[in-house]
Amino acid sequence: MKVRGIAAWRVVAVVVILGLVAAGAWLGYDWHRFSQAPLAIGTTGQSIDVPRGASFKDIVRELRQRHVSTASPLYWRALSFQMHVSGRLHAGEFALVPGMTPRDLLANMASGKVMQRNLTIVDGWTFADMRRALASVDTIAHDTAGLDDAAIMKRLGAEGDMPEGRFLPETYAYVKGDTESAIMKRAYVAMTKTLDAAWDKRDKDLPLASSYEALILASIVEKETGRADERPRIAGVFVRRLRLHMLLQTDPSVIYGLGASYDGNVHKRDLTTDTPYNTYTRAGLPPTPIALPGKAAIEAALHPADGTELYFVAKGDGSHVFSSTLDEHNKAVACFQLKRCQ
């Protein structure tokens, strides 16, 4: 009987050991599958925002609450130990992209590979347009709200500078929580570098006394046409007018001077009412840029096309008719503006 009891105990022990081995093997397989299988992110992608001070437990809880992962927190903890990233995860916003595995996500968090977002400053925007665009993005910290233009320029280290035209239209990458002033500073520095480099390589004998005057002219070119092939010709017209001391007579500058009173149309009274930006009543360039010019407009202002044209008129399809004499110009105006083509 004693022998039988020992044998039965051995059988039970073997069964238990085999069961434990099987369970361990299954857990190992399941954990490996968890670490390699894509998270339940879907096709459009998401992000997870890890605040400062968040614990590993908080991160896993967030993933489970959003049904990105249903795995046990123990699996996540074991994976973090295997990857040697436990206690080394960064705060920030991290992308959750289709096909991403738990291993990928932890690697990104450990290396601080935070999610990059993009903000585009559009060629031809005004400074006010840029401020409104920044204020409308909820992932940017609005640290310039309530500041006037002068206070913003002081914050950017450019005290006394007028802001119009000073920011380069480009697409800027940022991460969640970046401030408006930080993005503005990058755009300001980018414009300064771009303008300085272009000014150093400008055509000789331009009727421009400084790079700031070039910026003003570039802003007018930017607002006059969106066609790349026309920018140097438009710039050429204004450069020749400056040389001949002719009035520039550019409507976009008049419109800028009207400010909030502009109703969508330029009236005869607008052309005769004097403002610092009315180039029908005042000679030379306006006192500041009238928009944020892009690189192409700056290049056009500093490398204008040669020619004899002194006038242009819009055709209504985005292009212009250029004329060298007032008589030719008047005929073009009659045809394309008054619809009295001969």
Q: Could you characterize the architecture of this molecule?
A:
The protein has 342 residues and is mainly alpha-helical. The strands form three sheets. A two-stranded antiparallel ribbon has the order 1-2. Strands 3-4 form a two-stranded antiparallel sheet. It has a two-stranded antiparallel ribbon with strand order 5-6. It is elongated and about 125 Å long. The chain has helices spanning 2-36, 56-65, 73-82, 102-111, 127-135, 149-155, 180-200, 211-224, 231-243, 251-258, 268-272, 295-302, 326-336; strands at 46-50, 92-96, 117-120, 171-174, 311-314, 320-323. The chain contains 13 helices and six strands. Strand 5 and strand 6 (320-323) form a beta hairpin.
Compressed to H and E, one letter per element, the order equals HEHHEHEHHEHHHHHHEEH
Principal-axes geometry comes out as: elongated
Enumerate the spans where pLDDT stays under 50 for 5 or more consecutive residues: none
Tally of helical segments? 13
Report the count of strand segments.
Answer: 6
